[in-house]
Write a structure and sequence with these properties.
CATH architecture: Alpha-Beta Complex
Number of strands: 15
Mean pLDDT: 89
Structural class: alpha+beta
Order of helices and strands: EHEEHEEEEEEEHEEEEEH
Strand content: 25-35%
Number of domains: 1
Number of helices: 4
Distance between the termini: 34 Å
Low-confidence stretches: 2-13
CATH topology: tt1808, chain A
CATH superfamily: tt1808, chain A
CATH class: Alpha Beta
Largest sheet: 6 strands, mixed
Strand order of the largest sheet: 4-7-10-11-12-13
Helix content: 10-25%
Radius of gyration: 17 Å
C-alpha cells in the first residue's frame, strides 16, 4: 500500500517505535511503518484495494501455494535491515510455513522467510515504486510485486542487489505477469484482471 512520510520523529529507533505505536492508537485502521528511519502512514484500504489482494491470493492458492511449505498472508510485519528499528507491513506476502519460528520483535519476522511481497498502490504511489524498492532489496526479498493502480501496470522486481533489483519487468493490461518459479510454483498474474479488480467504479452524483 502506498505510504506518506510522517517524518523522522527522533534519532532514537526505540522512540520511533513508541511514536508509531502512539500514532496507531490515535488513528485506528491506518498502517504505520518505519522505513529509512522515517515513520510513514498508509491510508485506510478502499474496497477495490482489498479486491485486488483477493484476486492475487486466489491465483497463488490455485497454483498450490499456501500449502504445507508456504503461507499466503496479509499485513504481516517484516523486519528491515535499513535502520535499527525499521519495519514494513506489506499488503500481501508469501512466506515459509515455519515463519512463526522466525519472529524478531514488534510482531515482525525475519526477511529470510519471505519469498514474495506485494503492494497495491494508493494515493502516494511513489513510495511503493521508490522507497520500498530500496527497503525490500536491502532486505533481500526475492520477489517484489507492485500493482500500480495509477498507471494500470504490474511491476515484478527480482534479483535484489544492494538497494535495488537487478531485474524490473513492467506489464500492461492484455499481458500475463509471470512470477519466478523460485516462489514455489508456476504463477502468472493476469494484468487486466488485477487492474479491473483494483479499479474503483465511477460514482454518479446523487439525483
Amino acid at each position: 500500500m502506498s505510504t506518506a512520510g510522517v517524518g523522522p520523529l527522533t534519532d532514537d529507533g526505540r522512540e520511533l517505535l513508541a511514536a508509531a505505536d502512539r500514532l496507531s492508537d490515535l488513528h485506528p485502521g491506518y498502517r504505520f511503518e518505519i522505513i529509512g528511519g522515517v515513520v510513514t502512514v498508509a491510508p485506510l484500504r478502499d474496497g477495490p484495494h482489498a479486491n485486488a489482494l483477493t484476486t492475487v491470493m486466489i491465483a497463488l492458492f490455485e497454483a498450490g501455494l499456501g500449502d504445507e511449505e508456504t503461507e499466503v498472508l496479509q499485513g504481516i510485519g517484516l523486519w528491515l535491515p535499513g535502520g535499527p528499528e525499521d519495519y514494513a507491513i506489506p499488503d500481501l506476502a508469501l512466506v515459509d510455513a515455519d515463519f512463526d519460528d522466525h519472529l524478531i520483535e514488534y510482531n515482525c519476522y525475519d526477511p529470510a522467510v519471505f519469498r514474495l511481497v506485494l503492494e497495491v498502490t494508493s494515493s502516494n504511489y511513489n513510495l511503493d515504486l521508490r522507497h520500498k524498492v530500496a527497503a525490500y532489496a536491502e532486505a533481500k526479498i526475492p520477489v517484489y510485486v507492485i500493482l500500480d493502480r495509477k498507471h494500470d501496470r504490474v511491476h515484478v522486481l527480482t534479483e535484489p542487489l544492494g538497494s535495488s533489483y537487478d531485474r524490473h519487468e513492467v506489464y500492461a493490461p492484455g499481458q500475463q505477469a509471470p512470477l519466478p518459479a523460485s516462489i514455489g510454483a508456476e504463477v502468472s498474474l493476469d494484468v487486466a484482471e488485477l487492474i479491473q479488480a483494483g479499479r474503483a467504479k465511477p460514482r454518479t452524483p446523487d439525483a
